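Hi L.,

As promised, NAD(P)-binding protein:
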Amino acid sequence: MKLSVWTWLKGQFNKLPPVANADLTGKTVVVVGANTGLGFEAVKHFSKMNPERIILACRSQQKGQAAVEKIKAETGYNNAELWIVDLADFSSVKSFADKFEKNGGRLDILVENAGVATPRYEATKDGWETSLQVNSIATPLLALLLLPRMIQTARDHGTESRIVVVTSELHHWGGIPKKVLAQDDILTTLGSVEYCTPSRMRTFYNVTKLMNILFVRALNNRIDASTPLIANTVNPGLCVSELRRDIPFPLSWISRVFEWITAFTTEEGSRQLVFGAVGSGKLRGEYINQSHVEEPSDFVIGGEGKKAEDRVWDELVDILGKVDRRVLTTVDAYLISSQ
């Protein structure tokens, strides 16, 4: 579908459905980016559903621990744990997966909420543009490393595990230029310092959110129908959050005024994360907006988008397989050829 600015703006004034609810007794939930904003509010909702454990996956020890204490104080839930993970550092993601392999136990729900929007090119220690690595490369890395545990959990307990990747309606305005599609490596080209000019960085976040949708659709196409695993993307809409904290003045001031007029509250936005985790039934590989399945952008559902989806998947597997060979093992053992 094509999303006009006017249609999007009208949607910001819709009354959102109440938060989805479920009995999570005995289950383990991981929320990435849980110390603030949407992730923190989602944890508050989950804590009222009686899960055995909630793991707050955060990059800051201090902020993460403060969030754990705040959850206890505000909800009375005592089984929230802090685990450290920094998606801007592949070694940190691998360490998180290592810890889960050793003593993580079951894993029923993974909410991948962490994301950044950087106004200028900055490289991570791994050599990637920061927002591309955090939003579009390390997010799939974490999902693929935890996927075996999630499938085993579902098989052991007769349930279905769920992966929820937070995307954005901004993917509608995040197409991949034809000259990038003409290159051998889409992600490598997009993440290069040559490509990430100041003008492109102003809308680069949109591209990273498009990559989230391509990844989840590609993953879903490779999950056999008999495998008890669901993966969807959710759009929280424009919400009050810290995502725009790095926008320079005066754009930051304009953004805050616009946010004040049109944005959903942080709690309202978090309802979409919860819906993806407990309220989406048998939906697989879908793009969920305001608790309803919607078509993603015309690019995604078109022939060019399908080709890009398969190419990005192949490139991701190649990149991530070099980061951690367990990715290749997971793809071979748990996934099938594209349907």
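Strands lie at 28-32, 53-58, 80-84, 109-112, 161-166, 229-235, 287-289, 292-294.

Thanks again for sending the construct details.

K.
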